[in-house]
Amino acid sequence: MKTNSVKVEIITIGDEILIGQIVDTNSAWMAVELNKAGFELAQITSVHDDAKHIIDSLELALTRADVVLFTGGIGPTKDDITKQTLSSYFGMSLIFSDEVYQNIERVLINRSRAVNELTRTQAFVPDGCTVIQNTVGTAPITWFEKEGKVIVSMPGVPNEMKHVMSTEIIPRLSQRFETPSIIHKNVIVQGYPESALAMKIADWENALPEDIHLAYLPNYGIIKLRLSGISDDPLPMEFSINQQIAGLTEILGDAIVAFDDVPVENMIGNLLAAKGMTLATAESCTGGHIAHKITSVSGSSDYFKGSVIAYSNEVKINVLNVTADDIEQYGAVSKEVVEQMAVNIRRLLKTDVAIATSGIAGPGGGTTEKPVGTVWISVCSGSEIVTKMFKFGNVRLQNIERTTQTALLMLKEII
Predict the structure, then answer these.
(1) Rounded distance, CA 89 to CA 386, Å?
(2) Coil, strand, or helix at residue 268?
(3) Structural domain count of the chain
(4) Which of 102, 318, 410, 413 has the most other CB atoms within 10 Å of its CB?
């Protein structure tokens, strides 16, 4: 049964966000953690370091949300105005807090720094709010309440925000509000374009219960299907979602590669570790991106031996022993060359399986026969080699990402 949820709005403060100088990663992280705790995101807003802009956004947020969370705009510099703005808005005065000052001293001593005039100003807090100590930074967290709603101001520094959200804010909000359970289940599908998948499962989707929502989340060769439900009683909802997934499995069969939100590099790592196999890569157009993805997984040293970034023909010839005549005859972006790269890196590093890539990432370098986005990928084991050509598109970074994801999916099939 769907129930009324507690709505949260996140407001990030800072000119640097609005001019694109930094990317707002705080909101994405907060949204995930709040959703896990049963809170529903009403909106995410970014505003200037401007008092009127902050107040206008707050008043609008209070019309649609039960909780408003500010990040940024607090600190020792003159453009950090959130504390003063909220203090004025709630009719409070700033008073010096010995407890906050002692916390600032502890934090700075641990960093071998002394309190100066600017950092000392952070010990001034609104006299009518709840002050929460920032044990990993110098700017305190302030908690206000108005007509049953909660407003919290936190630092914009990501590690400080994450720490206080995890240890203080979410636990306090969970005590303050009764939240329903928000349940998400993910099914990872490969081998279908989004439109083709929608057609394949149309009857199943149309028959979904009204309280279960389906989202399509495509990502370079795979599509994540997310089924979600909100309920005061999570067990019946979870059972209902699992029933729908069972029906979906009957329709899609082997096209389903995972039943959890697991990146492909994690799937590969789990498979290699389970089978006791090792991997090497020889990368041209991906420039080490496949190796980066593999080694981003903890424990990858157990199964990943290394990579050769053979960006030039000289490295392909001198390190990977690709035949110079084949490069001359077929070109570096060819089946003949990429297969030699895969086979020879496997032999060179003595691994069970290997990946090789060669292509034209763009935006320049294409020809009529081999336009930008042309990529050859080869994966091999001791007994099998699979090589395919793809034409991905004209955007360089997307071509690198698509090649990486596709290569990992091809490797998954061979192991």
Answers:
(1) 65
(2) helix
(3) 3
(4) 410
